[in-house]
Amino acid sequence: ARRQHIAVHHSVTHLMHAALRTVLGKHVAQKGSLVNADYLRFDFSHFAKITNEEIAAVEKLVNEKIRANIPVVIKSMHKDEAVALGAMALFGEKYGDIVRVVIMDPAYSIELCGGTHVGSTGELGIFKIQHESAVAAGVRRIEAVCGAAAESYINEQFTALAEIRVLLKNTKDINKSIEYILAENNTLSKKIDGLEARQLVGIRSGLLQKDEIINNVTFVGEIIEVSNAEALKKLCTDLKSHLHDALIVLCSNIDGKAFVAIGISDTVVAAKNLDAAKIIKEQVAELIKGGGGGQKNLATAGGQDISNLKEVIEKIKGLL
């Protein structure tokens, strides 16, 4: 049975190669191939991503050739005779004077090949392309299934589709349901962004009242509640633009992880020879069991240990 499944994928590779040349152009040439019982992989020369329409056209042509139940004719002949017939040599193969030629309709597919094949194309059942991707400049890859493997794949897709219909509580128009969910998600995201922006303004106002002056530098150091690391960084940047000659240290416990943002006014960077990225590396990383980086005037870090956030603030405050 395994040998038969391999033969199925081998034979359909020939049909697909010819279909690709018909649909995409005669520049298509095999650059590599893998055939096993479960699927086939085919690398070939082509200059662009293959569109869904082109994939559908290749599948349609291959399945038409399968339904036509074309006899697979295998002949041994002299290499020159095979070339005169229009036989295509396969990538990386070395051929002697006498070659084995596999013909699936002389007007459609003639290839030099030593592999195992089916007796006629009707044995292939059905063909389905699963993936198309790039493997190198000017080389595309197709992964596909045929016969029993294609039947299993199609059944899996229909099962997944049925499960999606149940989840969406919609048996008719899945696209409409998904479009509605995406639109609703977009609206909710915008609302959340608006709420977070207002929350950050509120936190900023509170922090501006907690500043203290140390050796002519305005210091703000606080553990705050924010939803994500980006919000922490944004707040730090915002505070920095509202304060002159400032050093700001903001820490947060986000989902059980430690996050730190340090902002330093350019005047303080110069006057006190402070570097936020260096502080993160030398003072903060070890305390929060993590790491980070940035510029002299703004740097961030993330780590596993949330127990030392107060110490982080005190340590940086001590630099002044």
Give the strand order of the largest sheet, numbering strands 1, 2, ... along the chain: 8-9-10-11-13-12
The CATH topology of the largest domain is Threonyl-tRNA Synthetase, Chain A, domain 2
Instruction: Report the end-to-end length measured between terminal Cα atoms.
Output: 77 Å
Number of separate structural domains: 2
Kindly state the number of beta strands. 13
CATH class of the largest domain: Alpha Beta
Query: Helix and strand string, N-terminal first?
Result: HEEHEHEEEEHHEEHEEHHEEH
What's this model, at a glance?
By secondary structure, this protein is an alpha+beta fold. Helices cover 45% and strands 27% of the residues.
Tell me what the structure shows.
The chain is of the alpha+beta class and 320 residues long. The protein has 2 domains: 2-168, Threonyl-trna Synthetase, Chain A, domain 2 (Threonyl-tRNA Synthetase, Chain A, domain 2, 2-Layer Sandwich); 191-317, Diaminopimelate Epimerase, Chain A, domain 1. The protein is built from 9 helices and 13 strands. The strands form 3 sheets. The chain has a 6-stranded mixed β-sheet, with helices on both faces. The chain has a 4-stranded antiparallel β-sheet with strand order 1-2-7-6. Strands 3-4-5 form a 3-stranded antiparallel β-sheet. A hairpin with a 4-residue loop joins strand 1 and strand 2. Helix 1 (2-24) packs across helix 2 (52-67), helix 5 runs parallel beside helix 6 and helix 8 (276-288) packs antiparallel against helix 9 (309-317). The chain is elongated, with a radius of gyration of 32 Å. The model has no long low-confidence stretch (mean pLDDT 92).
